[in-house]
């Protein structure tokens, strides 16, 4: 494991710690950069908006990913290969390409507006690009595979005899799902949820291309401070706040949602 830890230390920990040190040493020693975040309401709104969008994307990804994961487990042969290919195919193209595709679909003369007009929902093209909805939809599309794969792994490890035993005991399909399948799949659900949520917190490309300045997320704000204002200390403070939130949320999930507790093990 030594090469792995050396790589993590050199490529992640050292740059992060160096950046965070700038936030408390420049332009002067202290917490002035962090006080600026607290004293300016707009930065708090950006952080809350980022948390809301990340939560919304995670919930939508969960509701879309669970049926797909169940279909992967219950399918075989060509259908299983087809579903797996649909999940893995997006990894073969860059996030930039997938985001640009959504920009084409959501433009005023795009397919989505044309379809809505054709079925009579709208009379004229509406603004779909550069909105929070566009960001949420595109991020859900990009991040959903990271939800499907952990859930698929958890569902695949559930013995099929459990479902048959529940049916023998009189449980219908719905009750069997909520009392047998879902509890046993919770480790995969929570693993995928955490992975998508934490990734969405620091997402940059999709919000930068499909969002508007009024719907800015924290990663876009950090990029703006670095590229436009060249304010590295304040950008480092924003990174510190984001790192603090990510760490706190990870510790909260690991402490509250204990896998052994969900599976009926002893605490």
UniProtKB/TrEMBL annotation:
Gene Ontology cellular component annotations, sorted alphabetically: plasma membrane
Membrane topology, from the record: Multi-pass membrane protein
Keyword line: Cell membrane, Membrane, Transmembrane, Transmembrane helix, Transport
Top-level taxon in the UniProt lineage: Bacteria
One of the GO BP terms on file: transmembrane transport
Subcellular location: Cell membrane
All residue ranges annotated as the ABC transmembrane type-1 domain in the record: 47-253
Major subcellular location class: membrane
Signal sequence interval, chain numbering: none
Family matches, as Pfam families: BPD_transp_1
Bilayer-spanning residue ranges: 51-73, 80-105, 134-155, 184-205, 232-253
Database matches in InterPro entries: MetI-like (IPR000515), MetI-like_sf (IPR035906)
PANTHER family on file: ABC TRANSPORTER PERMEASE PROTEIN (PTHR42929:SF5), INNER MEMBRANE ABC TRANSPORTER PERMEASE PROTEIN YDCU-RELATED-RELATED (PTHR42929)
Similarity comment: Belongs to the binding-protein-dependent transport system permease family. CysTW subfamily.
Protein name: ABC transporter permease
